[in-house]
Amino acid sequence: MRRRLVRVVTALVMAAGFVGVAAGPAAAQPYCDQPDPPPICEGEEDPGPPYGTPSVSLREVVRQPGGLRVSGTASDPNVATGIQVKIAVGSTIVATLTTSATTSAFSGIVPAAPGSQVCAMAVNQGAGENAYSCRSFTPQFNPFGVLENVSSGISGLTLKGWAVDPDTADPVKVEVYLDGRWIRSDTASQSRPDVATVYPGYGDDHGFQVTVPATPGSHQVCVRAVNVGLGATTEIGCRSAVQGSPPARPSLVLTPAPTGTSVAIRVIPSGTLATSFTIQLRGRALTYPPNTWLWTTVYSRAASGATEFTWTASGLTPATQYCWRVLASNAYGSSYASACTTTPMASTDPLPRPTGLMVTALTANSITLSWTDNAVNEQYYRIDRAGAETITVPGTPTTGWMTQTITGLQPGTRYCFDIGAWKDGQDYDPVRDFCGSTASV
Protein backbone atom coordinates (compact mmCIF):
# COMPACT_ATOMS: atom_id res chain seq x y z
CA MET A 1 0.00 0.00 0.00
CA ARG A 2 2.84 2.35 0.82
CA ARG A 3 4.42 1.85 -2.62
CA ARG A 4 1.12 2.63 -4.38
CA LEU A 5 0.71 5.80 -2.35
CA VAL A 6 4.17 6.98 -3.27
CA ARG A 7 3.48 6.58 -6.98
CA VAL A 8 0.18 8.48 -6.74
CA VAL A 9 1.74 11.34 -4.80
CA THR A 10 4.58 11.56 -7.27
CA ALA A 11 2.19 11.68 -10.23
CA LEU A 12 0.09 14.40 -8.59
CA VAL A 13 3.14 16.50 -7.87
CA MET A 14 4.27 16.15 -11.49
CA ALA A 15 0.88 17.16 -12.82
CA ALA A 16 0.89 20.22 -10.58
CA GLY A 17 4.09 21.59 -12.06
CA PHE A 18 7.00 19.16 -11.92
CA VAL A 19 8.13 20.32 -8.47
CA GLY A 20 10.52 17.85 -6.93
CA VAL A 21 11.38 15.92 -10.13
CA ALA A 22 14.81 14.33 -10.02
CA ALA A 23 17.48 15.60 -12.34
CA GLY A 24 19.69 13.30 -14.36
CA PRO A 25 19.80 11.36 -17.62
CA ALA A 26 16.63 10.60 -19.52
CA ALA A 27 15.13 8.12 -17.05
CA ALA A 28 12.35 8.25 -14.44
CA GLN A 29 13.90 8.23 -10.95
CA PRO A 30 11.72 8.31 -7.77
CA TYR A 31 12.66 10.78 -5.07
CA CYS A 32 14.25 9.43 -1.88
CA ASP A 33 14.30 12.73 0.07
CA GLN A 34 10.68 12.54 1.24
CA PRO A 35 9.00 11.38 4.49
CA ASP A 36 7.78 8.07 2.99
CA PRO A 37 10.38 7.07 0.36
CA PRO A 38 9.72 4.19 -2.07
CA PRO A 39 11.13 0.76 -1.27
CA ILE A 40 14.05 1.14 -3.69
CA CYS A 41 15.41 3.90 -1.47
CA GLU A 42 15.44 1.50 1.49
CA GLY A 43 17.12 -1.29 -0.37
CA GLU A 44 13.88 -3.11 -1.21
CA GLU A 45 13.06 -4.25 -4.75
CA ASP A 46 10.80 -1.82 -6.59
CA PRO A 47 8.02 -3.67 -8.38
CA GLY A 48 7.96 -0.93 -11.07
CA PRO A 49 5.06 1.07 -12.43
CA PRO A 50 1.54 -0.36 -12.59
CA TYR A 51 0.43 -2.28 -15.66
CA GLY A 52 -0.57 -0.01 -18.52
CA THR A 53 1.73 2.89 -17.54
CA PRO A 54 3.21 4.72 -20.63
CA SER A 55 6.93 4.86 -21.36
CA VAL A 56 8.75 8.14 -22.11
CA SER A 57 12.31 9.19 -22.98
CA LEU A 58 13.44 12.83 -23.22
CA ARG A 59 16.43 12.53 -25.55
CA GLU A 60 17.38 16.10 -26.46
CA VAL A 61 17.17 19.59 -24.96
CA VAL A 62 18.84 22.42 -26.88
CA ARG A 63 18.57 26.19 -26.36
CA GLN A 64 17.20 27.88 -29.48
CA PRO A 65 15.99 31.37 -30.36
CA GLY A 66 12.49 31.64 -28.96
CA GLY A 67 12.83 28.79 -26.46
CA LEU A 68 14.06 25.19 -26.16
CA ARG A 69 14.12 22.50 -28.80
CA VAL A 70 13.04 19.23 -27.16
CA SER A 71 12.61 15.77 -28.66
CA GLY A 72 12.06 12.20 -27.53
CA THR A 73 9.65 9.29 -27.64
CA ALA A 74 6.57 8.29 -25.61
CA SER A 75 3.90 5.60 -25.96
CA ASP A 76 1.01 4.11 -23.99
CA PRO A 77 0.17 0.38 -24.31
CA ASN A 78 -3.50 1.20 -23.83
CA VAL A 79 -3.89 3.25 -27.05
CA ALA A 80 -2.74 3.03 -30.68
CA THR A 81 -2.87 6.78 -31.27
CA GLY A 82 -0.48 9.52 -30.25
CA ILE A 83 -0.45 10.64 -26.64
CA GLN A 84 0.13 13.97 -24.96
CA VAL A 85 3.53 14.85 -23.48
CA LYS A 86 3.72 17.79 -21.10
CA ILE A 87 7.05 19.69 -21.03
CA ALA A 88 8.15 21.48 -17.87
CA VAL A 89 11.16 23.68 -17.15
CA GLY A 90 11.89 23.75 -13.45
CA SER A 91 8.47 23.92 -11.81
CA THR A 92 6.66 25.46 -14.78
CA ILE A 93 4.73 23.50 -17.42
CA VAL A 94 5.54 25.40 -20.61
CA ALA A 95 4.00 23.31 -23.42
CA THR A 96 2.07 20.18 -24.37
CA LEU A 97 3.23 18.13 -27.36
CA THR A 98 1.64 15.15 -29.08
CA THR A 99 3.55 12.05 -30.19
CA SER A 100 3.37 10.50 -33.63
CA ALA A 101 1.00 7.53 -33.74
CA THR A 102 3.45 5.63 -35.99
CA THR A 103 6.87 6.49 -34.54
CA SER A 104 5.92 7.54 -30.98
CA ALA A 105 8.26 10.54 -31.44
CA PHE A 106 7.66 14.05 -30.20
CA SER A 107 9.61 17.26 -30.87
CA GLY A 108 9.12 21.00 -30.90
CA ILE A 109 10.26 24.43 -29.80
CA VAL A 110 8.84 25.21 -26.36
CA PRO A 111 9.12 28.41 -24.30
CA ALA A 112 12.12 28.70 -21.98
CA ALA A 113 11.66 29.36 -18.28
CA PRO A 114 14.01 29.57 -15.28
CA GLY A 115 15.04 26.22 -13.82
CA SER A 116 17.79 23.61 -13.62
CA GLN A 117 16.04 20.67 -15.30
CA VAL A 118 13.65 19.92 -18.14
CA CYS A 119 11.10 17.12 -17.82
CA ALA A 120 8.71 15.35 -20.19
CA MET A 121 5.59 13.74 -18.67
CA ALA A 122 3.66 11.17 -20.73
CA VAL A 123 -0.02 11.55 -19.86
CA ASN A 124 -1.48 8.12 -19.07
CA GLN A 125 -4.48 6.73 -20.96
CA GLY A 126 -6.59 4.08 -19.18
CA ALA A 127 -4.89 1.77 -16.68
CA GLY A 128 -1.53 2.82 -15.24
CA GLU A 129 -0.18 6.22 -14.27
CA ASN A 130 1.69 9.16 -15.78
CA ALA A 131 5.36 8.58 -16.62
CA TYR A 132 8.14 11.11 -16.84
CA SER A 133 11.74 11.61 -17.99
CA CYS A 134 14.05 14.48 -16.98
CA ARG A 135 17.37 15.98 -17.97
CA SER A 136 19.56 18.39 -16.06
CA PHE A 137 19.47 21.59 -18.11
CA THR A 138 19.59 25.23 -17.07
CA PRO A 139 18.27 27.54 -19.80
CA GLN A 140 20.45 30.60 -20.37
CA PHE A 141 18.80 33.99 -20.70
CA ASN A 142 21.71 36.41 -20.34
CA PRO A 143 23.56 37.35 -23.52
CA PHE A 144 27.06 35.94 -23.92
CA GLY A 145 30.08 36.39 -26.18
CA VAL A 146 33.81 37.10 -26.24
CA LEU A 147 35.94 40.23 -26.54
CA GLU A 148 38.66 38.57 -28.63
CA ASN A 149 41.12 41.32 -29.43
CA VAL A 150 41.95 44.99 -28.81
CA SER A 151 44.47 46.78 -31.05
CA SER A 152 45.63 50.38 -31.20
CA GLY A 153 45.98 52.54 -34.29
CA ILE A 154 45.71 56.00 -35.75
CA SER A 155 41.97 56.28 -34.98
CA GLY A 156 42.14 54.85 -31.45
CA LEU A 157 41.47 51.39 -29.99
CA THR A 158 39.76 48.78 -32.19
CA LEU A 159 37.78 46.01 -30.44
CA LYS A 160 36.82 42.73 -32.12
CA GLY A 161 34.59 39.94 -30.87
CA TRP A 162 31.08 38.47 -30.98
CA ALA A 163 27.88 38.46 -28.92
CA VAL A 164 24.66 36.39 -28.88
CA ASP A 165 21.44 36.64 -26.87
CA PRO A 166 19.80 33.22 -26.31
CA ASP A 167 16.33 34.70 -26.78
CA THR A 168 16.81 35.87 -30.38
CA ALA A 169 18.68 35.12 -33.59
CA ASP A 170 18.83 38.83 -34.38
CA PRO A 171 22.06 40.84 -33.90
CA VAL A 172 22.35 42.32 -30.41
CA LYS A 173 23.70 45.66 -29.26
CA VAL A 174 27.04 45.96 -27.50
CA GLU A 175 28.27 48.78 -25.27
CA VAL A 176 31.91 49.81 -25.02
CA TYR A 177 33.35 51.19 -21.77
CA LEU A 178 36.76 52.88 -21.65
CA ASP A 179 38.32 53.10 -18.20
CA GLY A 180 34.90 52.50 -16.63
CA ARG A 181 33.10 55.15 -18.70
CA TRP A 182 30.58 54.41 -21.45
CA ILE A 183 32.06 55.54 -24.73
CA ARG A 184 29.77 54.22 -27.50
CA SER A 185 27.29 51.52 -28.57
CA ASP A 186 27.26 49.37 -31.69
CA THR A 187 25.47 46.33 -33.13
CA ALA A 188 27.11 42.91 -33.33
CA SER A 189 25.96 42.20 -36.90
CA GLN A 190 29.13 41.22 -38.80
CA SER A 191 29.34 37.76 -40.33
CA ARG A 192 30.85 35.10 -38.03
CA PRO A 193 30.33 31.63 -39.53
CA ASP A 194 32.44 30.12 -36.75
CA VAL A 195 29.92 31.32 -34.15
CA ALA A 196 27.04 29.92 -36.20
CA THR A 197 28.78 26.53 -36.25
CA VAL A 198 29.03 26.40 -32.46
CA TYR A 199 25.53 27.82 -31.87
CA PRO A 200 23.30 26.44 -34.65
CA GLY A 201 20.01 28.16 -35.13
CA TYR A 202 21.33 31.63 -34.31
CA GLY A 203 22.86 32.47 -37.70
CA ASP A 204 26.24 34.07 -38.27
CA ASP A 205 25.46 37.81 -37.95
CA HIS A 206 26.91 38.26 -34.47
CA GLY A 207 30.41 39.73 -34.91
CA PHE A 208 31.49 43.26 -33.99
CA GLN A 209 34.43 45.52 -34.73
CA VAL A 210 34.32 48.87 -32.96
CA THR A 211 36.91 51.67 -32.91
CA VAL A 212 36.85 54.17 -30.06
CA PRO A 213 39.06 57.25 -29.59
CA ALA A 214 41.65 57.01 -26.82
CA THR A 215 44.34 59.31 -25.49
CA PRO A 216 47.96 58.07 -25.51
CA GLY A 217 48.73 55.76 -22.59
CA SER A 218 47.35 52.66 -20.84
CA HIS A 219 43.62 51.90 -20.79
CA GLN A 220 41.13 49.21 -19.80
CA VAL A 221 38.36 48.58 -22.28
CA CYS A 222 35.26 46.45 -21.59
CA VAL A 223 32.28 45.30 -23.67
CA ARG A 224 28.76 44.56 -22.47
CA ALA A 225 26.12 42.69 -24.49
CA VAL A 226 22.68 44.29 -24.10
CA ASN A 227 19.99 41.83 -23.00
CA VAL A 228 16.85 40.98 -25.00
CA GLY A 229 13.83 39.47 -23.22
CA LEU A 230 14.49 37.58 -19.98
CA GLY A 231 17.93 37.99 -18.44
CA ALA A 232 20.25 40.93 -17.90
CA THR A 233 22.88 42.90 -19.80
CA THR A 234 26.17 41.04 -19.36
CA GLU A 235 29.84 41.99 -19.54
CA ILE A 236 31.49 39.70 -22.10
CA GLY A 237 35.10 40.76 -21.64
CA CYS A 238 37.68 43.33 -20.57
CA ARG A 239 41.22 43.88 -21.84
CA SER A 240 44.12 46.19 -21.15
CA ALA A 241 45.52 48.17 -24.08
CA VAL A 242 48.07 50.88 -24.76
CA GLN A 243 47.35 53.69 -27.21
CA GLY A 244 50.53 55.01 -28.81
CA SER A 245 51.48 58.57 -29.77
CA PRO A 246 52.21 60.15 -33.15
CA PRO A 247 55.78 61.44 -33.62
CA ALA A 248 56.75 64.92 -32.54
CA ARG A 249 56.95 67.70 -35.09
CA PRO A 250 60.22 67.65 -37.07
CA SER A 251 62.31 70.66 -38.08
CA LEU A 252 62.70 71.79 -41.69
CA VAL A 253 65.57 73.85 -43.18
CA LEU A 254 65.45 75.06 -46.82
CA THR A 255 68.61 76.09 -48.68
CA PRO A 256 68.09 77.35 -52.28
CA ALA A 257 70.96 76.87 -54.73
CA PRO A 258 72.51 80.02 -56.24
CA THR A 259 71.35 78.89 -59.68
CA GLY A 260 67.70 79.20 -58.57
CA THR A 261 66.86 75.76 -60.00
CA SER A 262 67.07 73.60 -56.85
CA VAL A 263 66.44 73.67 -53.09
CA ALA A 264 68.14 71.46 -50.50
CA ILE A 265 65.57 70.33 -47.89
CA ARG A 266 67.09 69.31 -44.58
CA VAL A 267 64.84 67.29 -42.25
CA ILE A 268 65.69 67.07 -38.55
CA PRO A 269 63.56 64.51 -36.61
CA SER A 270 62.34 65.30 -33.10
CA GLY A 271 62.64 62.03 -31.20
CA THR A 272 62.57 58.46 -32.49
CA LEU A 273 58.85 57.69 -32.81
CA ALA A 274 58.57 58.33 -36.56
CA THR A 275 58.62 55.33 -38.88
CA SER A 276 58.52 57.31 -42.14
CA PHE A 277 58.95 60.80 -43.57
CA THR A 278 57.11 62.36 -46.51
CA ILE A 279 58.06 65.59 -48.28
CA GLN A 280 55.27 67.46 -50.05
CA LEU A 281 55.21 70.47 -52.38
CA ARG A 282 52.33 72.92 -52.30
CA GLY A 283 50.97 74.09 -55.66
CA ARG A 284 47.86 75.61 -57.17
CA ALA A 285 45.27 73.08 -58.36
CA LEU A 286 44.94 72.82 -62.13
CA THR A 287 41.56 71.08 -61.94
CA TYR A 288 38.38 71.51 -59.88
CA PRO A 289 38.15 73.10 -57.37
CA PRO A 290 39.98 76.00 -58.97
CA ASN A 291 42.15 78.51 -57.13
CA THR A 292 42.91 76.10 -54.31
CA TRP A 293 46.29 74.99 -53.06
CA LEU A 294 47.09 71.31 -52.74
CA TRP A 295 49.96 69.36 -51.19
CA THR A 296 51.59 66.87 -53.57
CA THR A 297 53.97 64.17 -52.33
CA VAL A 298 57.35 64.38 -54.05
CA TYR A 299 59.53 62.18 -51.82
CA SER A 300 59.10 59.49 -49.15
CA ARG A 301 61.50 57.41 -47.11
CA ALA A 302 61.65 55.21 -44.03
CA ALA A 303 62.83 56.82 -40.81
CA SER A 304 66.10 55.85 -39.19
CA GLY A 305 65.65 56.79 -35.56
CA ALA A 306 66.60 60.41 -34.96
CA THR A 307 69.00 60.59 -37.93
CA GLU A 308 68.50 63.71 -40.05
CA PHE A 309 68.64 63.68 -43.84
CA THR A 310 68.71 66.05 -46.80
CA TRP A 311 66.82 65.75 -50.07
CA THR A 312 67.29 68.11 -53.01
CA ALA A 313 64.36 69.27 -55.12
CA SER A 314 65.59 70.06 -58.62
CA GLY A 315 64.11 71.37 -61.86
CA LEU A 316 62.80 74.52 -60.19
CA THR A 317 62.28 77.95 -61.72
CA PRO A 318 64.47 80.86 -60.57
CA ALA A 319 62.82 83.79 -58.79
CA THR A 320 59.80 81.64 -57.77
CA GLN A 321 58.31 80.94 -54.33
CA TYR A 322 58.02 77.28 -53.29
CA CYS A 323 56.39 75.93 -50.11
CA TRP A 324 57.36 72.56 -48.66
CA ARG A 325 55.97 70.36 -45.93
CA VAL A 326 57.54 67.33 -44.23
CA LEU A 327 55.33 64.79 -42.42
CA ALA A 328 56.70 62.52 -39.69
CA SER A 329 54.38 59.50 -39.41
CA ASN A 330 53.82 56.26 -37.53
CA ALA A 331 50.87 53.92 -36.86
CA TYR A 332 49.25 56.50 -34.57
CA GLY A 333 49.29 59.55 -36.80
CA SER A 334 51.46 62.29 -38.28
CA SER A 335 52.89 65.65 -37.40
CA TYR A 336 54.40 68.11 -39.83
CA ALA A 337 56.50 71.21 -40.30
CA SER A 338 56.27 73.54 -43.30
CA ALA A 339 58.33 76.36 -44.73
CA CYS A 340 58.51 78.48 -47.86
CA THR A 341 61.40 79.96 -49.81
CA THR A 342 61.94 81.93 -53.01
CA THR A 343 64.55 80.64 -55.41
CA PRO A 344 67.12 83.31 -56.40
CA MET A 345 67.36 84.86 -59.81
CA ALA A 346 69.70 82.83 -62.00
CA SER A 347 73.14 84.35 -62.58
CA THR A 348 73.80 85.77 -66.04
CA ASP A 349 77.55 85.93 -65.58
CA PRO A 350 79.39 84.02 -68.30
CA LEU A 351 81.00 80.67 -67.50
CA PRO A 352 84.79 80.63 -67.10
CA ARG A 353 86.79 80.57 -70.33
CA PRO A 354 88.79 77.46 -71.30
CA THR A 355 92.57 77.68 -70.94
CA GLY A 356 95.56 75.85 -72.31
CA LEU A 357 94.21 75.69 -75.86
CA MET A 358 96.50 73.83 -78.28
CA VAL A 359 96.55 71.83 -81.50
CA THR A 360 97.36 68.29 -80.43
CA ALA A 361 97.09 66.59 -83.82
CA LEU A 362 96.59 67.51 -87.45
CA THR A 363 96.27 66.01 -90.91
CA ALA A 364 95.74 67.50 -94.34
CA ASN A 365 91.98 67.49 -93.70
CA SER A 366 91.61 67.78 -89.88
CA ILE A 367 92.78 69.61 -86.77
CA THR A 368 92.45 68.23 -83.22
CA LEU A 369 91.95 70.90 -80.57
CA SER A 370 92.47 70.35 -76.80
CA TRP A 371 91.82 72.62 -73.79
CA THR A 372 91.26 72.76 -70.05
CA ASP A 373 87.55 72.93 -69.11
CA ASN A 374 87.17 75.45 -66.26
CA ALA A 375 83.33 75.54 -66.22
CA VAL A 376 80.98 73.46 -64.08
CA ASN A 377 77.65 72.02 -65.32
CA GLU A 378 77.90 73.63 -68.72
CA GLN A 379 75.44 72.31 -71.29
CA TYR A 380 78.05 72.09 -74.02
CA TYR A 381 81.14 73.75 -75.58
CA ARG A 382 80.72 75.76 -78.77
CA ILE A 383 83.36 75.74 -81.49
CA ASP A 384 82.69 78.40 -84.14
CA ARG A 385 84.60 79.33 -87.32
CA ALA A 386 83.70 81.74 -90.08
CA GLY A 387 81.64 80.27 -92.87
CA ALA A 388 80.96 76.92 -91.10
CA GLU A 389 78.31 75.42 -88.87
CA THR A 390 78.79 75.59 -85.09
CA ILE A 391 80.22 72.44 -83.56
CA THR A 392 78.95 71.46 -80.07
CA VAL A 393 80.77 69.25 -77.61
CA PRO A 394 78.68 67.81 -74.70
CA GLY A 395 79.48 69.47 -71.38
CA THR A 396 80.64 67.81 -68.17
CA PRO A 397 79.49 68.30 -64.55
CA THR A 398 83.03 69.07 -63.44
CA THR A 399 86.21 70.63 -64.80
CA GLY A 400 88.81 68.68 -66.78
CA TRP A 401 90.63 68.15 -70.09
CA MET A 402 88.60 68.14 -73.32
CA THR A 403 89.47 67.28 -76.94
CA GLN A 404 87.62 67.67 -80.24
CA THR A 405 88.69 66.88 -83.84
CA ILE A 406 87.41 69.14 -86.64
CA THR A 407 87.26 67.39 -90.01
CA GLY A 408 86.43 68.31 -93.64
CA LEU A 409 89.19 70.92 -93.90
CA GLN A 410 91.47 71.86 -96.80
CA PRO A 411 95.18 70.95 -96.84
CA GLY A 412 97.71 73.64 -95.99
CA THR A 413 95.03 76.06 -94.81
CA ARG A 414 94.93 78.25 -91.72
CA TYR A 415 91.71 78.11 -89.68
CA CYS A 416 90.66 80.24 -86.67
CA PHE A 417 88.09 79.21 -84.02
CA ASP A 418 86.05 80.74 -81.18
CA ILE A 419 85.75 78.23 -78.24
CA GLY A 420 83.67 78.68 -75.08
CA ALA A 421 81.34 77.01 -72.54
CA TRP A 422 77.58 77.45 -73.04
CA LYS A 423 74.67 77.43 -70.58
CA ASP A 424 71.15 78.72 -71.21
CA GLY A 425 70.42 81.99 -69.42
CA GLN A 426 74.06 82.97 -69.01
CA ASP A 427 76.28 85.16 -71.13
CA TYR A 428 78.65 83.55 -73.61
CA ASP A 429 82.34 84.60 -73.40
CA PRO A 430 84.51 82.37 -75.62
CA VAL A 431 88.19 82.44 -76.37
CA ARG A 432 88.30 84.05 -79.80
CA ASP A 433 90.52 83.53 -82.83
CA PHE A 434 92.48 80.47 -81.72
CA CYS A 435 94.13 79.43 -84.98
CA GLY A 436 95.91 76.44 -86.51
CA SER A 437 96.84 75.14 -89.97
CA THR A 438 96.24 71.79 -91.65
CA ALA A 439 99.19 69.85 -93.07
CA SER A 440 100.31 70.49 -96.63
CA VAL A 441 100.04 67.72 -99.18
TrEMBL record:
Keywords: Carbohydrate metabolism, Glycosidase, Hydrolase, Polysaccharide degradation, Repeat, Signal
Keyword Translocase: no
Organism: Plantactinospora sonchi
Domain Fibronectin type-III positions: 246-351, 353-441
Annotated signal peptide: 1-28
PANTHER family xrefs: FIBRONECTIN TYPE-III DOMAIN-CONTAINING PROTEIN, TENASCIN
SMART domains: FN3 (SM00060)
Residue ranges, annotated region (Disordered): 33-54
Pfam families: fn3 (PF00041)
InterPro entries: ECM_Regulatory_Proteins, FN3_dom, FN3_sf, Ig-like_fold
Taxonomic placement: Bacteria, Bacillati, Actinomycetota, Actinomycetes, Micromonosporales
Protein name (Swiss-Prot/TrEMBL): Fibronectin type III domain-containing protein
Keyword Nucleus: no
